[in-house]
Design brief:
Layout: E1 4-9, E2 12-16, E3 21-24, H1 31-53, E4 58-69, E5 77-88, H2 92-106, H3 108-113, E6 118-125, E7 128-132, H4 149-165
Parallel strand pairs: 5-6
Antiparallel strand pairs: 1-2, 2-3, 4-5, 6-7
């Protein structure tokens, strides 16, 4: 991929791709907003293309992102919460997989910031909320098997105490 910009005047640039050119006016839409729009456009493209490849259609797609950035320069993205809303003639399991596939595999712009920013998502599908992610860490604890029932009950009691102690941050 080759892209370029050429300064035109003030803070404006002509942007060029292999097939198109367009004006970038940072006082109207900042470069970071363009980057963020690129991420959700990339994912939105997937949410149209993946179902089409499977013989399904998607209607009324909207994708919104709430992005948190670090306060210190270079103010990298630290968290991205995505909100997908769309209708389709497929079942909700397929719809959820389309979004997951976009976020986890196909959308290269989102995957460029993976590891730097925590990405969570929510899906409204045919008017029903089918996924609400949150950014809490899931901790799975426990013995792999129980040989001593008394020790297992003691261990369970310790877990109850620990869960109360950390209930604000772990569930």
């Amino acid at each position: 991929m080759e892209v370029s910009i050429h300064h035109t005047d003030g803070m404006n640039f002509e942007a060029k791709t292999k097939t198109q050119s367009f004006l970038i006016e940072p006082k109207k839409v900042s470069p970071i907003e363009i980057f963020a729009l690129g991420m959700i456009s990339c994912s939105g493209t997937d949410i149209i293309a993946i179902p089409q490849s499977q013989g399904f259609s998607v209607e009324n797609l909207s994708v919104k992102a709430n992005i948190t950035r670090a306060e210190e320069m270079p103010k990298k993205f630290t968290a991205i919460e995505l909100f997908y809303s769309f209708n389709s003639n497929a079942d909700k399991i397929k719809a959820k997989r389309w979004v997951q596939s976009s976020i986890e595999t196909y959308c290269s712009t989102l995957n460029t910031v993976r590891g730097v920013a925590n990405i969570i998502y929510n899906i409204e599908y045919n008017g029903e909320i089918i996924a609400q992610n949150d950014d809490r860490l899931m901790v799975v604890v426990g013995p792999c098997s129980i040989h001593d029932p008394k020790a297992a009950l003691d261990y369970a009691g310790n877990l109850v105490e620990a869960s109360k102690k950390f209930e604000e941050t772990l569930q």
